[in-house]
Known about the structure:
Elements: E1 6-11, E2 29-30, E3 33-34, H1 35-43, E4 51-55, H2 59-65, E5 70-74, H3 80-87, E6 95-100, H4 108-120, E7 125-131, E8 140-143, E9 149-153, H5 160-163, E10 167-176, H6 177-184, H7 199-208, E11 212-216, H8 229-249, E12 253-254, E13 261-262, E14 267-268, E15 273-274, E16 279-281, E17 285-286, E18 291-292, E19 297-299, E20 302-303, E21 308-309, E22 313-315, E23 318-319, E24 324-325, E25 330-331, E26 336-337, E27 342-345, E28 348-350, E29 353-354, E30 359-362, E31 365-367, E32 369-371, E33 376-377, E34 382-384, E35 396-398, E36 403-404, E37 409-411, E38 414-416, E39 421-422, E40 427-428, E41 437-438, H9 450-456
Parallel strand pairs: 1-4, 1-6, 4-5, 7-11, 12-15, 13-16, 14-17, 15-18, 16-19, 17-20, 18-21, 19-22, 20-23, 21-24, 22-25, 23-26, 24-27, 25-28, 26-29, 27-30, 28-31, 29-32, 32-35, 33-36, 34-37, 35-38, 36-39, 37-40, 39-41
Antiparallel strand pairs: 2-3, 6-10, 7-10, 8-9
Bound molecules: uridine-diphosphate-N-acetylglucosamine and calcium ion.
Uridine-diphosphate-N-acetylglucosamine is lined by residues 11-14, 53, 74, 77-80, 82-83, 100-103, 138-139, 152, 154, 168-171, 197-199, 224-225, 227.
Amino acid sequence: MSTPSVQTLILAGGLGTRMKSAVPKVLHDVLGHPMLWYVVDALADIDPQPIIVTPAANEAFRAAFGDRLTYAVQPEQHGSGHAVQCGMEHVSAEYVLVCNGDDPFPSAEDYRGFLDESLVEHADAAVLVAYLDNPDKLGRVIRTADSAFAGIVEARDARPEQLGIHEINTGVYLFRSADLRSWLVQMKPNNVQGEYYITDCLAMAVQNGSRVYCHVARDKWELSGVNDRAELALAASVLQRRKLDHLSREGVTIDMPETVRVDWDVAIGRDSEIRQGSCLKGNTKVGHSSIIGPNTILIDAQVGDETTVLASFVEGSAIGNNCVVGPFSYIRPGTLTAERSKVGAFCELKASSLGAGSKVPHLSYIGDATIAENVNVGAGTITCNYDGFTHAKHRTVIEKDVFIGANNNLVAPVTIHEGAYTATGSTITHDVPPEALGIARAVQVDKEGWVRRKKHGQ
Ligand code: UD1
Ligand code: CA
């Protein structure tokens, strides 16, 4: 038997009013991706180009997902059944898998398992149901005396004894497309909300004598759907636990996991440790045997192997192998530090490179600088990269084996050539030749008896 064709239809046409937000509900961020991304990702194996039903104003959807989705608009919100109706014009496959866009929890395996078993059962309609400790506002599964599936009743429409049911509708369905079309036209908004419910199609299927398969999720379901900010926070914590569990199983030590935030796409090598209070966001990668934190923030950062980043903030930068950063340093976008380099305490680096074995150990600002290998930058040194007028920043070049004395001002554009030294307290305004000593400071003058004269008029 050849595999029947299946398209997927994601419902995101609701206004998500309970979020109280200008941002569409399913585009709210959960661990570095819009909530909807998790649904699209989990369905990718079944359908790489899902149909999404959105409200009429869907620019934000298009900006986030581009051509990855097929867009269907639901001009007015008349319920999930009406949303499916709006999406069906794009369905040509024999089957359509329908799911809610506000549910980032089902995995690719959950969708695949549901689909495969529903097809094996030759279902005309199928629904994925689960048991939940707190079913709250979710639709309850109604069964006959001999436990056959009879339909779904929304919590709002349920009788008190039905509210005691813990078996709930997860909002994932499979329909034979032709049958679904015939049921959709028969839907009636006979409920408290006056809406068209997709769930009513299941009851119709049962009444018509069609094959309706009710697939009970094997594992306990943690929650279903995100409708307000409290559930958004819960969603983040559920997915965070999955992410941290995965990292732990892969050999990463997470110290005090409840204090750590790691975005979904962050990669961390084995034997690395993420210490308490750290936050790793976006496209961050950490190599093996590195120590991140306590209290480090990495955003789109690449950190090598056997490197420590202690109580520091790194964004859009790459830190090499066997490096040390921190405590209390700020590495801004466009910075590259090569192996064995050190950025110590209270330093700010921006759009700069630091060569192998070079050190900026204390209290420096290094902006728009190219620093070669084996350079030592004295405490308190800054690059003066901005002249206060032009928009372009000027570059400082420090060649290899240079020693910059403490508290220097390097007035860019300027080059300190290979092997040169600069004296403590210098304001270097022009290039220093190779192996020269650059001194640029006032000569010390001692005024004998000056204090005595001031204090006592002598
Ligand atoms: C829905 C189900 C409920 C199930 C729960 C699972 C219905 C009637 N109820 O309830 O049985 O337990 O999901 O999480 O379907 N939508 C539209 N257009 C609309 C209204 C909604 O596209 O006019 C979309 C929403 O964007 C959302 C999905 O349909 O992604 C479900 O709507 P929502 O209002 O969240 O339904 P629930 O009350 O959560
Ligand atoms: Ca919902």
